[in-house]
Amino acid sequence: xxxxxxxxxxxxxxxxxxxxxEAARVELGLERMIFLPTRGAxxxxxxxxxxxxxxxxxxxxxxANPAFALDEADLAxxxxxxxxxxxxxVRARHPHxxxxxxxxxxxxxxxxxxxxxTVLANLDCFAIAPxxxxxxxxxxxxxxxxxxxxxxxxxVLDLPALNGSATxxxxxxxxxxxxxxxxxxxxxxxxARRRLYAGPVHADA
Length: 205
Known about the structure:
The chain has one domain (2-194): HUPs (Rossmann fold), CATH 3.40.50.620. The chain is α/β, with parallel strands linked by helices. The protein has helices at 15-28, 51-62, 83-93, 105-110, 116-121, 136-144, 148-151, 166-174, 185-194; strands at residues 2-8, 32-37, 68-70, 98-104, 125-129, 154-156. Helix content is 40%, strand content 15%. The chain is built from nine helices and six strands; from the N terminus they run E-H-E-H-E-H-E-H-H-E-H-H-E-H-H. It starts with a strand and ends in an 11-residue tail after the last helix. The protein is globular, with a radius of gyration of 16 Å. Helix 2 (51-62) runs antiparallel to helix 9 (185-194).
């Protein structure tokens, strides 16, 4: 089976996440796209919403697409939050499947990836989704620095570069603005019911 992996804090999950995941799934011919939420990233401020709320929003957002699935491996008590530790665990669950990790170009060049060789060793493909607000030259420089064997695993998706982000969603909420069409309707209702993201805004994807 050809499986896509899509990680993040999803604080909250928004429509750009869902678009990239589905568009990548179709372009690469993936049979399933697995979302891998993390407790928090080591290179950014902690998520605003707690794990339970972020999981609940993800379940609501993914419910309409039978090709989407949720894996909570990076939320386990012994999870480190490092992709290099997560990928071997995911590979062990899918020893005979073709695994493709999908990531935004900004996350690839801005994040201090630890043991990137271990990440790549457990993947068959590493797919990059362009982000509109980032300088494409930085991505080109990153790719140029890869070894020939590493570069063979990379593909840049033929997708429109997007500006949507969780920071935008939280900023809108903090200023009393609308998030309709930025997030799925069910997620919008959940945020309103739980009164999430009323505090200070911190930037992320």
